[in-house]
Predict the structure.
Amino acid sequence: QVQVVESGGGWVQPGGSLRLSCTASGESIANFDAMGWYRQAPGKGRDLVALIGIGGRTNYGGSMTGRATISRDNGKNTAYLQMIGLKADDTAVYYCNARHYNYDRSEWEDYWGQGTQVTVSS
């Protein structure tokens, strides 16, 4: 059974930095087509922060352009999200997603973590 677990959230002052981790079990992250980070603020939808593909190609949502960096360490079976210059608007629950395409079923399979809270305030 595939599981992904986030860690590294917490409270940080405006301008601060955090690194979130997403560790997978039950499957090597090297087998996923993409690992991603999403976030959901209170009363809002879940938005893309960053994606990283098998070949290391990255894609970033508009909310944290230039302030977030996604990476993956296949040896540790972990993806990371490094965030800098955090603002109060970055306060949200951050979710990790792992996905791969099931060719037998012709559909994407998504695995979500429980989320980790990031709070930015003074």
Remarks:
- DSSP finds no helices and eleven strands in the chain.
